[in-house]
Write a structure and sequence with these properties.
Blueprint lengths: L3 E10 L3 E11 L4 E5 L6 H9 L6 E6 L2 E2 L10 E5 L10 H11 L4 H14 L15 H14 L4 E5 L7 H17 L3 E5 L3 H7 L2 E6 L2 E6 L1 H6 L4 H6 L3 E11 L3 E6 L2 E6 L8 E7 L4 E4 L8 E12 L2 E8 L4 E7 L11 E5 L6 E4 L5 H4 L3
Parallel strand pairs: 3-8, 3-9, 6-7, 7-8
Antiparallel strand pairs: 1-2, 1-4, 4-5, 9-10, 11-12, 11-14, 12-13, 14-20, 15-19, 16-17, 16-19, 17-18
Bound molecules: adenosine-5'-diphosphate and magnesium ion.
């Protein structure tokens, strides 16, 4: 069992640098959780707090309800894999993997068994007698993982572990890593700057900004139900339509945007309130305004229609002069010309409606 609980954890470096602020969350035993957020938001600090290389300034960390403040790093049952992981260059793969149980003073037969099992688990039995310098990048990371397994750690901390791999190999390794964590019943906390990776590999993803936890949710929650303006901005890409609520029922509300009125998801917003309606750029549907009147749509004028590989980016100016970007699949047959009149259809179910931030959208999204 390795449930992790952060309770109001704050870490201040020096006098003033609040690297993480009032973090509270629970990671369940066997869960795979990724941490994402802009550079400097506190991801590595969170891992270091978990590992015990630094201690909280305020708050407490528990593993299975046991407070960790007096438990040193070597007794926390934790293994690490980083992008430039320090495996010993003068030892073979096998010797590297044996290192953990050896310094713990495990008997020779146990060590051999642990090493064999770990080699098999990460599928590098045939590399056992090689030196690290002759390994490919993925086999290097597999050696690092085997070392964690042989040390019998139950919690795996990963900081940009796949950063050195090419895209294609990286995608394969993501699947390998998730399967390994599940098979070995580890609890994994994985820091990555690659949100596609986080959404692929994890049971839940934690979005952080400026030292705070913004949202901890499943990949589907983050895509369909971001609960915060920043989360819908940072995960994927969204536009924010400014409007005023003119009616509300339990399920839906109507929002006036410029001269138009559209229906949106009601997330507890009230009549008369100024709101920011978040819509994912991939979820806009764009049609020439001549085709038909779409049920829940806004008029606009095309600024540009540009290929982005298998997507197209259509930039559209709305009546209120705001420019939004629709990401439409390249299979969409209609190409739009500059200044063409279009309608942008917005399915109410895919909208998220937030109170308009007093400080303005740009400040609210500051990283
Ligand atoms: P991330 O990994 O998300 O990029 P970090 O956790 O490394 O962010 O850093 C969070 C903040 O804490 C940053 O402002 C960083 O400069 C600061 N910080 C991190 N480590 C130290 C340290 N040892 N001393 C002073 N400031 C630090
Ligand atoms: Mg970092």
């Amino acid at each position: 069992m390795s449930e992790i609980r952060f309770q109001h954890v704050t870490k201040i470096f020096g006098r003033r640098v609040e690297a993480v602020k009032d973090l509270s969350f629970i990671i369940e035993d066997g869960e795979y959780v990724s941490l994402i957020g802009p550079s400097g938001c506190g991801k590595t600090t969170t891992l270091r707090l978990l590992a015990g290389t630094i201690l909280p300034t305020k708050g407490q960390i528990f593993f299975n309800d046991e407070p960790m403040e007096t438990v040193p790093i070597q007794d926390r049952n934790i293994g690490f894999v980083f992008q430039h992981f320090a495996i010993f260059p003068h030892m073979t793969v096998k010797e590297n993997i044996a290192y953990g149980p050896t310094i713990r003073g495990r008997p020779r037969t146990d060590i051999e068994e642990l090493v064999e099992k770990a080699l098999k688990s990460v599928q590098i039995e045939d590399k056992a007698d090689l030196y690290p310098t002759s390994l490919s990048a993925p086999d290097w990371q597999k050696t690092a993982l085997a070392r964690v397994l042989a040390s019998e750690a139950k919690i795996l901390l990963l900081d940009e572990p796949l950063g050195a791999l090419d895209q294609k190999i990286r995608e394969e390794f993501q699947v390998f890593l998730r399967n390994l964590v599940k098979k070995e019943k580890l609890t994994a906390i994985h820091v990555t700057h690659d949100q596609a990776e986080a959404l692929t590999i994890s049971d839940r993803v934690a979005v952080m900004n400026k030292g705070r936890l913004v949202q901890l949710g499943t990949p589907a929650d983050l895509i369909y139900n971001p609960n915060h303006l920043f989360a819908s901005f940072f995960v994927g890409e969204s536009d924010f339509l400014e409007g005023v609520v003119i009616s509300d029922t339990e399920q839906e509300a109507e929002v006036r945007i410029g001269q138009s009125i559209i229906k949106v998801n009601n997330m507890g917003i009230e009549r008369g309130k100024r709101v920011a309606v978040a819509v994912r750029r991939e979820f806009f549907q764009v049609e020439p305004s001549s085709t038909k009147k779409l049920p829940n749509s806004l008029p606009g004028i095309v600024v540009e229609d540009q290929f982005l590989g298998l997507l197209r980016r259509v930039r559209i100016k709305l009546e209120n002069q705001q420019i939004i970007e629709a990401k439409i699949h390249a299979k969409h047959p209609v190409h739009f010309s500059e200044n063409e009149k279009v309608r942008i259809n917005i399915d109410p179910k895919i909208t998220r409606c937030f109170d308009y931030p007093k400080e303005g959208i740009t400040s609210a999204l500051e990283m």
